[in-house]
Amino acid sequence: MKDLETKNLKIRKFKMDDVEDVYKNLATIQELKNCSEYHIHKNIYETSAMVSSFIREYETGELALAVEEKATSTVIAYIRSLEVSLPDKRCDIKFGITFSKFNTNLIEEALNAVLDYLFNQLDLCIFLHDCSFTLLNWNILLYFNIVISKFYDSNKKLTETKCEMLENVGMKKDAVLRNRKINEKTGKSENLIVYSIMKNEKTYQ
């Protein structure tokens, strides 16, 4: 895929040079330590392995995108596409941003650019097996009809902020699935929050 650019951000594929930024800005956020979906890295080697796995994901059609702040040339956030269904033209996204940039609207700026890409200009390199089990490399252009974002309500303030971020880019709350998970860190039951947006619902400023 080509790099995406906004006024303040460059959104691109991860590279191994990003490991130090990711470790410092995204993998060691103490304020998120009790969130069920967040794992604090004990050392930079864990982060290196994670970034390497992100790079390998490109071969499956899934995307892990680094969000680089132009002013500082550092990676401050990520956006990932998961559970991609090409026949259904659907994918899920997860995202995170360094705590110091949490209330800056930069993640909304990044999400708007990525939604535009997923809905209107997606280009993927898909690796598929044919009936003789030969690995094929297909470069295809397509778009998604719906993008979904799901997360657990581990932290009340974080949940409220995340809901606001998604609503700021036009996503709608579809459901609150009650008591879907026990947080192993806190022992408390958590709800699963589900947001989505359709291609024909997205507007751009």
Residue stretches low in confidence (pLDDT < 50, at least 5 long) are: 126-138
| DSSP strand content | 35-45%
Overall shape: it is globular
Q: Helix fraction?
A: 10-25%
User: Treating each run of at least 4 consecutive H or I residues as one helix, how many helices?
Assistant: 4
The radius of gyration computed from the alpha-carbon positions, rounded to a whole number of angstroms, is: 17 Å
Major beta sheet, strand line-up: 1-2-3-4-5-8-10-9
Question: What sequence of helices (H) and strands (E) makes up the elements?
Answer: EEHHEEEHEEEHEE
What is the compact description of this entry?
This protein is α+β, with helices and mostly antiparallel strands and 205 residues long. It has helices at 19-25, 44-57, 106-120, 156-168; strands at 4-5, 9-13, 63-69, 74-85, 90-97, 122-129, 135-142, 146-152, 172-182, 189-198.
Description:
The chain is an alpha+beta fold and 205 residues long. Helix content is 24%, strand content 38%. The protein contains four helices and ten strands. It has helices spanning 19-25, 44-57, 106-120, 156-168; strands spanning 4-5, 9-13, 63-69, 74-85, 90-97, 122-129, 135-142, 146-152, 172-182, 189-198. The strands form two sheets. An eight-stranded mixed beta sheet has the order 1-2-3-4-5-8-10-9, with helices on both faces. It has a two-stranded antiparallel sheet with strand order 6-7. A hairpin with a 4-residue loop joins β4 (74-85) and β5 (90-97). α1 packs across α2 (44-57). The radius of gyration is 17 Å and the shape is globular. Mean pLDDT is 89; it is low at 126-138.
